[in-house]
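Narrative of accomplishments. A recurring question from our advisory board has been how the design workflow behaves on a single, concrete structure rather than in aggregate. To address it, we present the structure tokens for one chain from the evaluation set, followed by the sequence designed for it. No filtering or post-editing was applied between the two.
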């Protein structure tokens, strides 16, 4: 066993022991004894002792309601603590890698050894444009209060690594104290978060982690670039930037109003001003230097310490900005329009950057570049990455809302029904109006709900300023008119610098149609006036997988990217692909390097945008070291994919993937269309009870009507993860892989696995999902919750899971899952005895609630089991 893995196990053991102490002290002997008995039975059941399995189910089925929540809490907290230990393990691994320059240093060295010239490396690094877009989808089951406590425990583990003797004992006492505090904190959200709450939580990530992690990563990148090319990373280059959907994503979320968007934009500016205020104070302390060029002396009006004089004036402007933003926020909350900002208020990043740039030039000119590369370069790099808004806000809205808004306008003007027009008629109208300088809107716009919401949102954007805004994303975009409509509506709302409009193609059919839409859009000369030489297209992983299954979705996304790149190239336009990934494999999630390197050749050349959703934010940015590792992985993987892309698949491999995708989609859809499916889904999973969690501001369904179509992809995945069947992530694969194996294609599949990163990633992710599945647990839900007439349907699904497992092992040439990933296998194994009782208890609680037991204690206990299973599975949607 490696040293790192021994330390991981030691951390898990320490945290488990301290939790046990807390249970004795705070819960009482009865709780500690109950936990130990349940854990003993769960381990026995997991080892195959049927008597223990029967005893475990009997104990939990007879458990008094007042004991259910404490028991669930104990197991849930252990799983959360195991996650903390794994976060620390990741950070420890990164610290070790940093001693050798990190992934990006190794990548640059490898690329250089493979004949990339220093100039090519420098150009590739400085051309990187990676944007990580934080979203507030309801996937974060743990409360922010608890996550903060978890971070402090992780920090204690980090200190423990380098302590000895009494110091180590003190640190372990700190851990025990923090775990006791966690135990006495209510982990159940009593109130559903608002979009403002979600935005505040996102800003905490910038304040506590990214603000310091980003310049540290850029220093690492600078050192790596200097070592391999002899040139520094220019301070104004921002290889990685950030965006946000928190407070801007209004697709299906009526809680995101124009007022919310305005407030969120002001909040981000306020947080940035507060962070820069602290940064400039530190810079003021550092730059006591009197040596400067003539330009700085003149700017400082002959002050003895010119840099400090300039910084003092700049700091006063930042303080004025912060105070103005506080007043503006209060006004918006009262429903009033904020006062006009004083001239001293900093509205643009250039206002902040310009004096600091002058100081940089002076220090370099007088021979003090070494000083300039201290806090000054970090501050300049923060400005390049974060601007004065931290993360520009994307706006997202469904295409049908824009259609309804324009329909209201054309009807009011007596032009007919826009909604009833053909695509050619819509395009002709939109292009004609975009070319006409007169306003389209009548003096008194018609009283239409869709039009009012769209215009109110766009007016809020106009007042927020262009630097607060990112892209305008159109959900379910299906035609060029969907893009043109948003450009026209922005103009009508008075937005002087239009947001770039990004069509989002989500379902498998839409992905197939996307290249034709882009071709038609780029072929319209007037449209090119607005689009220019660069266009962004978003591709959705969640809905395409929900629509056709994981294999068909992955291949559809791959082919769509290839075709979109070809269309853009033909029209002489640069294309950026925006990947709408979720946290789970069923929604496009997966390891960063694996995800990027498995994309089609050329599709990430130089840059990409990616959503970082819900729980994935904590997985990527839980600790500063993990955040640095995340940024390093994105940069190094994108560089490798840019300068050394994988070869395109052979025609034979493409044909094989076509057959795999077609067979997989057919099998997947056949199962979902069976009449027993929805009744089984509703009975066997806690999907209908997920609304009790209060974990997001957005409704779980797009409409109030029932059925699978209206259910969003997140709760769809979440529900199956809870029962450990993980159905959406593998369903369809059993038929596709088995058929190919039966056709004698196993040698070809082995070859694809070895030499095609896309297929290797698909298989590896499928293996990880299958390793987290548990047939016995899924069967237990059936036995306790599913009507007898539906039991054969559940058996059929579990049989399909078995077929998938055997087919995958055949493709991998392995005897068991995760043979080559012992750390992940151990992680799953150590969690199982703690997740298993939560599953049994959850099924029992669901049975009681559905039988009509109206007891708030049952609801609380159920919520805790959901949180605990989510923590144990490391996935909620």
């Amino acid at each position: 066993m490696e040293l790192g893995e021994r330390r991981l196990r030691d951390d898990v053991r320490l945290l488990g022991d301290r939790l046990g102490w807390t249970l004795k002290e705070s819960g009482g002997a009865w709780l500690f004894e109950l936990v130990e008995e349940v854990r003993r039975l769960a381990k026995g059941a997991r080892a195959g002792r049927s008597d223990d399995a029967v005893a475990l189910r009997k104990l939990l089925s007879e458990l008094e309601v007042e004991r259910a929540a404490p028991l669930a809490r104990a197991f849930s907290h252990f799983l959360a603590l195991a996650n903390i230990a794994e976060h620390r393990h990741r950070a420890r691994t990164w610290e070790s890698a940093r001693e050798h320059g990190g992934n990006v240093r190794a990548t640059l060295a490898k690329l250089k050894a493979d004949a990339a010239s220093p100039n090519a490396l420098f150009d590739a690094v400085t051309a990187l444009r990676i944007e990580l877009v934080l979203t507030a989808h309801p996937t974060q089951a743990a409360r922010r209060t608890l996550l903060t406590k978890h971070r402090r425990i992780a920090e204690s583990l980090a200190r423990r690594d380098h302590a000895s003797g009494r110091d180590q004992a003190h640190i372990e006492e700190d851990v025990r104290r923090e775990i006791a505090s966690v135990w006495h904190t209510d982990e159940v959200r009593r109130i559903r978060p608002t979009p403002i709450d979600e935005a505040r939580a996102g800003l905490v990530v910038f304040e506590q982690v990214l603000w310091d992690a980003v310049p540290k990563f850029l220093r690492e990148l600078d050192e790596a670039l200097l070592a391999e090319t002899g040139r520094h990373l220019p301070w104004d280059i921002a290889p990685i930037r950030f965006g946000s959907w928190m407070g801007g994503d209004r697709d299906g979320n009526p809680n995101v109003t124009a007022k919310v968007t305005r407030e969120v934009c002001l909040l981000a500016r306020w947080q940035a001003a507060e962070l820069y205020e602290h940064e400039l104070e530190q810079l003021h302390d550092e730059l006591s230097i009197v040596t400067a060029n003539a330009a700085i002396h003149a700017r400082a009006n002959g002050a003895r310490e010119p840099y400090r004089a300039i910084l003092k004036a700049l700091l006063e402007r930042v303080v004025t900005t912060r105070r103005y933003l506080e007043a503006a926020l209060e006004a918006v909350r009262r429903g009033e329009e904020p006062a006009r900002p004083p001239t001293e208020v900093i509205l643009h990043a250039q206002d902040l950057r310009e004096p600091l740039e002058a100081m940089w030039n002076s220090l370099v000119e007088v021979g003090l570049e070494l000083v300039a590369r201290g806090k000054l370069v970090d501050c300049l790099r923060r400005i390049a990455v974060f601007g004065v808004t931290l993360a520009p806000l994307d706006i997202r809205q469904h295409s049908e809302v824009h259609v309804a808004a324009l329909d209201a306008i054309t009807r009011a003007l007596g032009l007919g029904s826009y909604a009833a027009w053909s695509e050619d008629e819509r395009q002709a109208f939109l292009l004609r109006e975009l070319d006409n300088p007169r306003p389209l809107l009548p003096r008194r716009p018609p009283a239409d709900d869709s039009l009012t919401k769209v215009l109110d949102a766009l007016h809020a954007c106009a007042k927020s300023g262009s630097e607060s805004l990112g892209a305008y994303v159109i959900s379910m975009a299906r035609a060029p008119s969907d893009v043109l409509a948003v450009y026209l509506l922005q103009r009508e709302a008075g937005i002087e610098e239009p947001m770039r409009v990004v069509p989002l193609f989500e379902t498998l059919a839409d992905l197939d149609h996307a290249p034709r839409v882009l071709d038609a859009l780029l072929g319209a000369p007037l449209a090119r006036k607005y689009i220019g030489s660069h266009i962004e297209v978003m591709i959705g992983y969640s809905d395409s997988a929900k629509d056709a299954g994981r294999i068909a979705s992955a291949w559809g996304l791959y082919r769509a990217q290839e075709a979109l790149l070809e269309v853009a190239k033909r029209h002489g336009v640069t294309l950026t692909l925006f990947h709408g990934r979720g946290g789970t494999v069923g929604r496009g999630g997966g390891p960063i390097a694996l995800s990027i390197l498995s994309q089609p050749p050329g599709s990430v050349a130089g840059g990409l945008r990616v959503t970082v959703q819900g729980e994935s934010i904590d997985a990527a940015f839980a600790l500063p070291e993990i955040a640095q590792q995340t940024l390093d992985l994105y940069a190094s993987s994108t560089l490798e994919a840019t300068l050394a892309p994988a070869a395109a698949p052979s025609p034979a491999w493409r044909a094989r993937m076509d057959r795999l995708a077609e067979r997989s989609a057919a099998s997947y859809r056949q199962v979902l269309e069976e009449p027993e499916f929805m009744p089984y889904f509703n009975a066997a999973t806690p999907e209908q009870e997920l609304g009790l969690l209060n974990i997001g501001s957005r409704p779980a369904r797009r409409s109030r009507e029932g059925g699978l179509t209206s259910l969003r992809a997140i709760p769809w995945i979440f529900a199956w993860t809870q029962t450990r069947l993980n159905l959406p992530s593998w369903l369809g694969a059993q038929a596709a892989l088995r058929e190919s194996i039966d056709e004698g294609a196993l040698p070809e599949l082995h070859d694809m696995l070895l030499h095609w990163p896309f297929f290797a990633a698909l298989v590896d992710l499928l293996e990880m999902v299958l390793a987290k599945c548990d047939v016995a647990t899924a069967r237990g839900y059936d036995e306790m919750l599913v009507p007898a007439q539906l039991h054969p349907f559940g058996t059929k699904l579990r049989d399909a899971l078995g077929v998938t497992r055997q087919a995958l092992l055949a493709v991998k040439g392995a005897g068991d899952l995760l043979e080559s990933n012992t750390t992940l296998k151990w992680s799953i194994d150590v969690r199982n005895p703690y997740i298993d009782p939560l599953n049994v208890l959850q099924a029992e609680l669901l049975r009681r609630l559905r039988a009509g037991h109206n007891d708030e204690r049952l609801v609380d206990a159920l919520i805790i089991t959901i949180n605990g299973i989510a923590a144990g599975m490391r996935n909620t949607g």
